[in-house]
Design a protein that fits this description.
Radius of gyration: 17 Å
Number of domains: 1
CATH class: Alpha Beta
Largest sheet: 7 strands, parallel
Order of helices and strands: EHEHEHEHEHEHHEH
Shape: globular
Strand order of the largest sheet: 3-2-1-4-5-6-7
Bound molecules: NADP nicotinamide-adenine-dinucleotide phosphate
CATH topology: Rossmann fold
Number of helices: 8
Number of strands: 7
Length: 257
């Protein structure tokens, strides 16, 4: 029997990278997507190949696919490639997202569309093209990553708040449609987790109260192992800790800072 396969979006750095490496440790082969690769590095540190090396260090396979989650055609082709290479896909983690720093009403409408496309259309395209593969092997799982910002009108990032609230709505509606074949859940991350992307927006000393991204791996691994009937939930890290799914407070170590 072949190993289970997980696809992670936003796997070049931050939370997505950590989840990918920890799923490899749990025995998954990985499909890694993001825009930053060795040949097209991004502004921040991290490439898909860096993550792939760490996945392979656990003895697992990594399929690297540089793509923009806004690119529907690229996602459709990737689904065909994953079917050909692995013949299965068991878990999708819709993690990639962007938070335009400028208040939306003072920014361009182009940046508004970028946020909608990356944070909502991206997870929909990934789900749309991969659900047939998730269903092929029986019991699939989708985990969407939201933020406390979904519930905060005063967050001052209208596009981020809007798209994360929509992602939570999409989770519940998709879970209803896929009941019995694919469990669809969402982690509403309400705690600051140290990542390259988040840190880039802050002065270095403010990283000290952050938790380690491994708490998100705990949450994803727990959801991946939950019964298929556990679906349509939007859960915070606090909710998951109360269920024993996520380790206690784990600060980002000096090494991460
Ligand atoms: N860190 C926190 O405290 C926190 C709190 C609440 C929620 N979250 C959520 O957690 C998730 C991960 O956040 P993070 O802190 O790890 O962010 P990050 O360090 O900025 O990483 C974001 C990832 O998404 C990818 N990405 C962004 N736009 C993309 C696009 N258009 N196409 C493909 N990939 C794209 C980036 O890769 P490339 O640049 O290489 O494409 C990167 O791998 C996000 O959904 C975020 O909203 C984080």
């Amino acid at each position: 029997m072949s190993a289970p396969v997980a696809l992670i979006t936003g796997a070049s750095r931050g939370i997505g990278k950590r989840i990918a490496i920890d799923l490899a440790e749990s025995g998954y082969d990985l499909v890694l997507t993001a825009r930053s690769s060795k040949t097209t590095p991004g502004r921040l540190p991290g490439t898909l190949e860096d993550t792939a090396t760490q996945v392979e260090n656990w003895g697992r396979k990594a399929l690297v696919s540089p793509l923009d989650v806004r690119d529907e055609c690229a996602i459709a082709s990737l689904a065909k490639q994953v079917d050909k290479v692995f013949g299965r896909c068991d878990l999708l983690v819709n993690n990639a997202a962007l938070a335009p720093p400028k208040p939306a009403l003072k920014d361009s409408t182009k940046r508004w569309r970028m946020a909608i496309d990356a944070n909502i259309n991206g997870p929909f395209y990934i789900s749309y093209y991969f659900v047939p593969l998730l269903e092929k092997n029986g019991l699939g799982r989708i985990v969407n990553i939201s933020s406390q910002a979904a519930t905060m009108p005063d967050f001052q990032r209208i596009s981020y708040t809007t798209t994360k609230a929509a992602l939570e709505g999409m989770t519940r509606a998709m879970a209803f449609d896929l009941k019995g074949s694919v469990a669809v859940n969402c982690i509403r991350l309400e705690i600051p987790v140290w990542t390259e992307g988040f840190a880039a927006t802050l002065p270095p000393e403010s990283a000290l109260g952050f938790e380690h991204p491994v708490i998100m791996s705990d949450a994803v691994r727990w959801l991946a192992e939950s019964p298929i009937t556990f679906t349509g939930r939007v859960l915070t890290i606090g909710d998951l800790r109360a269920r024993g799914a996520v380790r206690p407070f784990t600060p980002a170590s000096i090494k991460d800072l």
